[in-house]
Design brief:
homodimer; alpha/beta; 7-stranded mixed sheet; 28 strands
Chain lengths: 771, 771
């Protein structure tokens, strides 16, 4: 069970001598893994430990790769987004000098009106003119396989390869991967090509000069002299794919067609969307529709003739989907390529081509959207968007979310957790346990927002009797777990859960009292959908077993108890315990025992809640009552984003240039700290470092006249100011518990320590805040 | 008389408040001029001196512009090539945030297999996806006018503009420019738009937040929210062009069609090639051919509908010329845009489109090539090159250089000089004098190679009764001047001179003896073409008048004497003297007097050489006798480049990856130093700094046993070594005169000074080397 980052990094590490890195989300794990492996002495397929160098930026990483290649070394790097942009000057040079190299990219949005750490193809499309071959992977398995093919093909062709896959959707999705052995990789690489590359390296014993300046007399001719190398690439890639198939049994080609042999309408896509598109096309073909799907795998050099040959002769219209936006262009890149390929190579009347944008910044692309796109040709639009509602320039295709439902025999489990509570780690673990202990195919995908530590995580786990190509989030879970009770009140987490599903809730209230603490809307959903509600006080067990706020072990145990039809409980528990030993063994037996104890207590502590027959009446009025005083923009836009309904905002709701009103954090109280700093006025020295250092602006210090304290609430703390400027005034250091994240920076900077070792600001446990 | 750099910089300076610069050829003069103007206190149209800031790189310049824009300032920068590549990340941000800005680019080749300082569109095409509008100028006049339109249109549209023109061909060509006044510029700018931009600037009194991170929920919608701004650009540009026409009388449009109204074949180009193409199309149409030319001016946003509307309905085939190469693509960018535009917007059967590459790295594009391209459709090739011989992948279109001759009434003067001899400066001067003192249209273009100081310069001057659109080098001069006698032996400079032309030669030998010192081939050409040979010893006059090696004043005087039909001599001389006063006046009356004296002496010193009736017999064997021992590559390739025949090398002659053999400088002796360092062994301290510092590796130091001096030639200098390691050995510091450029770096670093103030290595005049 691997994600694409690890799958690609394994191959890159095995086939390189020099690896220059600079971390950037979502490609960082590739560099981190390569670095860790070399630190541990892991060798490449030739028995050498690759040299991993972290540079000062991606520009430096590209320069280091360029330099290494010029000495005849095998070199690689990993990057994304702006990191890739910084490599552009070196990429032109590396390609111009016909140096074999591979850059592995977890494709990510380039920052425009706003930065985004999420995935689309705007970065890789920004380098399509540099002369690099481009090979695309649509899954972790393919990320491994295309990585191997890219390394093999670049050595034979001398054209450098950019190998990419979708950031997060593919880079971070965990699925079963048939791993390739070092023996097979060695078999794949043409050692003659490696030796030829070495022989071309700069060397004092057979000096040549590179990097000259050329004048108009010869530059143009020299630029055309490389043509034969580019013309040869598609053939070399095809040969390497064939050799790869002979070695591993997995067969690929530059363009892969799926669907009706007599299709009249064909969708063209690249990247992870191929998974969702394939499901849609299969369903449509099963209904007798004459549709098909063409997946592009070798994007550069683009073999126009092979592209046309891959299409059924019956095709009358194509819809090309691009995961990027180039404002002011005649069309997005893949669309332009398809139009040109048909104009040049299609025999007979040219099919009509339309182009759509989808999935910018990891926006979902689902089979329902793919179906809408396949059916969207009356009236025909040349350019459209799908996945959003564009009420401004009316580009968006309407889609019917109900047009697609996942097969009933696929287990679809969704878990809501916090960034630091261990939920994602435990779920990765569960995916691995089920993937390795059953015949089921498993998939794990994890949604973080970009607020990092302390923000919401959603884990999407699928278990299916068939290989899983569902490259989109679960919308209709058959199992749901909420790992933090407080999350229930903030967003509608249960709304699309399949009726009759099990719902696991981490609740401090026990089977008796939990129901009455649930928000009214949650109660209604549970009743209407006849959900089975199970509760466990994971926080108490974790705390009592000394596991702090990491509730994962308890809740993972409960997940396995509630899903024994997937994996018998005893096997699940023993696999969990093996994982505990592997993960915590080196921290000593005590930690292992604590986790074992948590597992045992979880088995005993989970209880089912009796759900009333009747639903309570719906609440009247707006659920975001607190926002009634907020400015219009906050009520219309920010509130929707806070409540997890940002996807539903239409284009008109968003600022045209990325400009947002300030001060909206006051309307978004995350209340996520489980420990907050508590002030001890008696030892405070008024230095104010805490307020200066707080990264969340959650600490304010005010000085005021003593008479202002009249009528202050009980427990309101204050002390006389010790500063000369504020003589005679009182001072209060006030922490805002709902804004504090419990990060502890204020405590770190506080210089005042009492005789008991407690600082003037020090973290204390707070009870979990309840509804 | 201005070049495009100055024309664009004038407008940019007049309409900006913040100008961030970082110099890069060929855009440097724009930054340098802006800097100098602000230093001198020159104001923009609002009476404010723009702040000019030189940054640490182009990345910094783009960042500074971005920052200035965010405060509501009017900001600009200038760049090219790799400089533009470093701006890409900020360009995405500036466009995404809808900040009005203009970058002026003197378009230059991006380094690939080799660096090139020359011009093509590979840099601007590498940023076409960033969301910037792109406006193209084809001449210095247009560079001024489009600069003004770009600044006006960006403010109204909020879409940033990249304004570009061809590096060197346009950036450095001097032609008459009708300059626009500050009043007209002020009239052109919409002050409401300026105020709106200011109001959007970040300001503590009305704070907003920019540069946020967005999640998948809203990024896509926000990215589409800017669509209306891009849709509006073509209309706004058209309106601004109309307002510009009303102000100045000069009318432009986004697409401009020339040629037959019933054309069946149309060429599409962008940039300076439009000049050569227009001449070809006019000639072909005059012969009754149904051809036309479409010039693209607003390249982004590309208005597909307007493009198709600009074409005659009769068109059946288009040939699209791109000045860039994107290996592995489906076609070059403009080609792809035209195919897409026709596929979407053309009514009726789609015309056939072919695409050609031309002019990479300032490769010539001539009317003869344009004619070949217009006629090249049987057999039809989808993709081709023109201007080279591609004997490898057979992409090149053959063209007949004889298919085009310049009109007889255009004076075409070509001057050969050295980088430091003042030739280019004097010729710029002559262009200005003739342009401003006659009714003739003048054009000056100057070819440098990238070896900088000390290398050959060729000045191409045209004077015509009509406006000059000839955006290519003079191939058939009607006047030729060789400012350095030694150049005659190195390359065939006279071969295409029009019979009967005047030939001015700077010769130290006088009218009597010059003939016998001419190379045999030169003698033959002069006789066969019946050239009038005039000589002057400009070197002697310059030296004797204390002007050093700057022979320009003398030779410029002779040029005017030989071309009195262009401008009466008395007016020319008085204009020259005015220029002398303007240029040298501040250095005192003595320098002015010296130049006046040189002019007077030149008038008296020029003599005509009597040319014999019969030509000498041709030499047998290879003219490059010295290369007979050279390696094959040097004889085939390097020699051709050295002799100025590099343009004729076919693709197969050039290395595929920029790799060249080392040590070829030994076959290229430039002998260009007029002063070389002379060694004084008696004061030398053996420190060896001279040899270490010499940038041309022209100084070697050897230690040897005294007996090796036996049989040494007279005058061979040596001294006993003063170092302990070399006790008992002799030492010689040897300068290679033919490799030395006379730069003086060795003298600067030499620490040993004799009692007379002369250093152990010191520059001394050497007599000009003769054939």
């Amino acid at each position: 069970m691997l994600d694409a980052n690890e799958a690609a990094a394994r191959v890159a590490h095995a086939l390189s001598e020099v690896i220059a890195i600079y971390p950037i989300t979502p490609a960082s794990p590739m560099g981190e893994l390569a670095d860790a492996w070399s630190q541990k002495g892991k060798t490449n397929v030739w028995g050498v430990v690759p040299q991993v160098i972290e540079m000062q930026s991606e520009a430096g990483a590209a320069g280091a790769v360029h330099g290494a290649l010029l000495t005849g070394a095998l070199a690689t790097t990993f990057t994304a987004s702006q990191g890739l942009l910084l490599m552009i000057p070196n990429m032109y040079k590396i390609a111009g000098e016909l140096l074999p190299a591979v850059i592995h990219v977890a494709a990510r949005t380039v920052a425009t009106h706003a930065l985004s750490i999420f995935g689309d193809h705007s970065d890789v499309m920004a380098v399509r003119q540099t002369g690099w071959a481009m090979l695309v992977s649509n899954s972790a398995q393919e990320a491994q396989d295309m990585a191997a093919i890219a390394h093999a093909a670049t050595l034979r062709s001398r054209v450098p390869f950019l190998h990419f896959f979708d950031g997060f959707r593919t880079s971070h999705e965990i699925t079963p991967v048939e791993t390739i052995t070092h023996d097979d990789l060695r078999e794949l690489i043409d050692m003659g090509a490696v030796e030829a590359h070495r022989a071309r390296g700069l060397h004092p014993e057979h000096p040549v000069i590179r990097g000259t300046a050329q004048n108009p007399d010869v530059f143009f001719q020299a630029r055309e002299a490389a043509n034969p190398f580019y013309l040869a690439v598609p053939g070399i890639v095809a040969e390497e794919m064939d050799r790869f198939a002979a070695l591993t049994g997995r067969r690929y080609s530059s363009f892969e067609y799926y669907g009706a042999p007599d299709a009249e309408r064909v969708m063209v896509v690249m990247g992870s969307a191929a998974g969702a598109a394939l499901e849609a096309v299969k369903a449509a073909v099963a209904r007798g529709e004459k549709v098909g799907l063409l997946v592009v795998r070798l994007y550069r050099p683009f073999d126009k003739e092979a592209f046309c040959r891959s299409l059924p002769e019956t095709v009358r219209s194509l819809v090309v989907l691009d995961r990027t936006k180039e404002p002011g262009s005649t069309g997005e890149p893949l669309y332009l390529d398809v139009v040109a390929a048909l104009a040049e190579e299609w025999e007979g009347p040219m099919p009509r081509v339309t182009g759509g944008r989808y999935g910018l910044s990891s926006k979902e692309f689902t089979p329902a959207m793919a179906l809408a796109v396949l059916h969207e040709d009356l009236p025909p639009r040349r350019h459209f968007t799908v996945g959003i509602v564009d009420d401004v320039t009316r580009t968006s295709v309407r889609y019917d979310a109900d047009a697609w439902h996942e097969p009933e025999d696929v287990v679809r489990a969704v878990f809501y957790g916090l960034g630091s509570d261990g939920t994602v780690g435990a779920n990765k673990n569960s995916v691995r346990i089920i993937g390795e202990n059953t015949d089921l195919h498993a998939q794990g995908y994890f949604v973080y927002d970009s607020k990092k530590s302390g923000s919401q995580t959603v884990s999407h786990l699928r278990f299916s009797p068939r290989p899983i190509t569902s490259t989109y989030l679960i919308t209709e879970p058959t199992f749901i777990a909420v790992h933090q009770f407080g999350m229930l009140g903030k967003a509608d987490l249960l709304h699309s859960t399949v009726p009759g599903s099990k719902f696991l809730l981490n609740s401090p209230y026990g089977a008796e009292d939990t129901w009455d603490h649930l928000p009214r809307d949650v109660q209604r959903t549970i009743v209407e959908r006849e959900l089975e509600l199970w509760v466990v006080d994971a926080g108490r067990i974790a705390m009592e077993e000394g596991l702090g706020n990491r509730v994962n072990t308890v809740l993972q145990t409960c997940f396995f108890m509630l899903n024994q039809d997937i994996l018998p409980l005893d096997r699940a528990i023993s696999a969990m315990k093996e994982e505990v030993v592997a993960t915590y063994g080196k921290r000593g037996p005590e930690v292992v025992e604590r986790n074992f104890a948590a597992i045992e207590r979880a088995l005993a502590a989970m209880e089912q809640v009796k759900v009333p027959d009747a639903a309570p009446p719906p609440l009247r009025g707006t659920p975001s009552g607190a926002l009634q005083d907020a400015p219009d923009f906050v009520r219309r836009v920010t509130a929707a984003m806070m409540e997890g309904r940002g996807d539903l905002l239409p284009v008109s709701a968003l600022p045209v240039d990325g400009t947002f009103p300030t001060g909206t954090a006051r309307w978004e109280k995350r209340s996520l700290a489980s420990e907050i700093p508590v002030w001890s006025p008696d030892i405070c020295t008024d230095c104010a470092r805490c307020a200066l250092a707080c990264p969340h602006a959650a600490i304010r210090i005010k000085a005021y006249l003593p008479e202002s304290l009249e009528g202050a609430p009980d427990g309101f703390q204050s002390k006389p100011s010790s500063g000369r400027d504020l003589a005679g005034r009182m001072i209060t250091v006030q922490v805002s518990p709902d804004d504090c994240t419990g990060c502890g920076v204020c405590v770190d900077v506080c210089p005042a320590v009492g005789s008991d070792g407690v600082k003037a600001l020090d973290l204390r446990d707070v009870l979990p805040r309840r509804e």
